From TrEMBL:
Upper classification of the organism: Eukaryota, Metazoa, Chordata, Craniata, Vertebrata
Keyword set, alphabetical order: Iron, Metal-binding, Oxidoreductase
Cofactors demanded by this protein: Fe(2+)
One GO MF term: 2-oxoglutarate-dependent dioxygenase activity
Protein name, as recorded: 2-oxoglutarate and iron-dependent oxygenase JMJD4
SUPFAM superfamilies (UniProt xref): Clavaminate synthase-like (SSF51197)
Occurrences of domain JmjC (ranges): 143-302
Family according to the record: Belongs to the JMJD6 family.
Reactions catalysed: L-lysyl-[protein] + 2-oxoglutarate + O2 = 4-hydroxy-L-lysyl-[protein] + succinate + CO2
Keyword Membrane appears in the UniProt entry: no
Any GO CC annotation of this UniProt entry: nucleus
PANTHER family: 2-OXOGLUTARATE AND IRON-DEPENDENT OXYGENASE JMJD4 (PTHR12480:SF6), ARGININE DEMETHYLASE AND LYSYL-HYDROXYLASE JMJD (PTHR12480)
Length: 427
């Protein structure tokens, strides 16, 4: 089955339960390696990795036509500093200090890109040492800042991307990033924003990943319920601090080569090291396969906030609203914005189902074009998953306590529209 005919796949109509997204054990820590572009379809990825929430690695053949693979790398596989300075020299970029712990991450600062590249060159020249520490350029929104640059094309497997579809629509943010760092730079233990999927493609260099299946992180918490900063630290062996560590599985370890793409499943915690001077492209994304996990994450986050400020519940008239505000400051979204997120995704699919796709829209890199590429049955699948989560949100007591008069259309009307669109599409 090729990508175009995937629309005819009946896989979308299987009743996958949310429990299929839970933790599981990979035999021997094995992670599938996808070698050939021509023999691996979106349907294969959907069935074997998205729905069961399994990691995999795509070979360098999947990225060989990217502009960044051609132009950002020297003949011997190193970062092409001269080219990067020519294209992006005037940019200002976020840089983290890997040698300093600030709460449970590394402190960040904004630096001119020119200054960072000069630092990187000196760092290499000095045997990978600097009085400034090991600096890692992280979470750079390069695609948003330089949309005209030929950097990469999102593989079709990752094109059902609700996070970036929504944040592009409201023109506020995106979850497309570039990372650049010297050998020895690293990212502490974490799970991705909203418990999203992520994909990471090495433009050059090599990475080592330590992955823990969803649920395994519970065994790695200390006696206060906090996750470790570094899962390789000897202190994890201290049972008085980490009482359940000996019950955890060993991490799944991946060494990612230049050009390869790693798919990280939803809710999997991980820690990442650059084994060489490395540049990577990274996306976070949510779709119909894991939106229920995002909703569960938001409920857990709100419950944590409510526990934290429970003593203020009685004297505070707007306690429920304050909980939402705190949750949004911590996670980036609250319940009302989550409703609007679901609404934008649903209305885009309803528009395609009801009105089709004009030639101009299909020729552009737009959400509607992506829906068209994956097929009308994919749009129906998305709507069915949205109905399930929206039904749960609408019935949620914390959601009902908010002032919902600003939501347009009201949740009940949107649900009715979604169900009618699904019924019409399946006639």
């Amino acid at each position: 089955m090729d990508r175009a005919t995937f629309a005819c796949s009946t896989a979308f109509f299987r009743d996958y339960s949310s429990s299929s997204q839970g933790a599981f054990c990979l035999p021997g820590g094995h992670v599938d390696f996808i070698e050939k572009v021509e023999s691996f379809t979106y349907s294969d990825f959907f069935r074997d990795y998205l729905i069961p929430n399994h990691p995999c690695i795509f070979s360098a053949k999947f990225t060989e036509d990217w502009g960044s693979r051609r132009n950002w790398v020297t003949w011997d596989g190193k970062p092409n500093f001269d080219h990067l300075l020519q294209k992006f020299g005037d940019a200002v970029v976020p840089v983290a200090n890997c040698d300093v712990k600030e709460y449970n991450s590394n402190p960040k600062e904004q630096l001119p890109f020119k200054e960072y590249i000069n630092y990187w060159k000196e760092y290499i020249k000095n045997g990978y040492h600097s009085s400034r520490g090991c600096l890692y350029l992280k979470d750079w929104h390069l695609s948003r800042a330089f949309p005209e640059q030929d950097v990469y094309t999102t593989p079709v497997y990752f094109s059902s991307d609700w996070l970036n579809e929504y944040w592009d629509a409201i023109a506020v943010d995106d979850y497309r990033f570039v990372y650049m760092g010297p050998k020895g730079s690293w990212t502490p233990f974490h799970a991705d924003v909203f418990r999203s999927y992520s994909w990471s493609a090495n433009i050059c260099g090599r990475k080592k990943w330590l992955l823990y299946p969803a649920g395994q992180e519970e065994y790695l918490k200390d006696h206060h319920g906090n996750l470790p900063f570094d899962v390789t630290a000897p202190s994890l062996q201290d049972r008085s601090v980490y009482p359940r560590y000996n019950q955890s599985q060993p991490p799944v370890e991946i060494v990612q080569e230049a050009g390869e793409i790693v798919f990280i499943p939803s809710g999997w915690h991980h820690q990442v090291y650059n084994l060489e001077d490395t540049i990577s492209i990274n996306h976070n994304w949510v779709n119909g396969c894991n939106v229920a996990i995002m909703w569960c994450f938001l409920q857990d986050e709100l419950a944590a906030v409510q526990r934290e400020i429970n003593e203020w519940k009685d004297p505070m008239d707007d306690w429920h609203l304050q909980c939402q505000l705190i949750m949004k400051s911590c996670t980036g979204i609250d319940y009302k914005e989550f409703y609007n997120f679901l609404k934008v995704i649903a209305e885009n699919r309803i528009s395609v189902l009801e009105n089709g796709l004009d030639d101009e829209a299909s020729a552009k890199n737009t959400p509607k074009a992506a829906i068209s590429t994956l097929g009308m049955l994919h749009a129906v699948f998305d709507l069915k998953r949205t109905v399930k989560v929206l039904t749960s949100l609408s019935a949620n007591e914390d959601f009902k306590k908010l002032d919902l008069t600003s939501l347009s259309p009201p949740p009940e009307a949107l649900l009715h529209h979604l169900k009618a669109a699904i019924d019409t599409a399946l006639l």
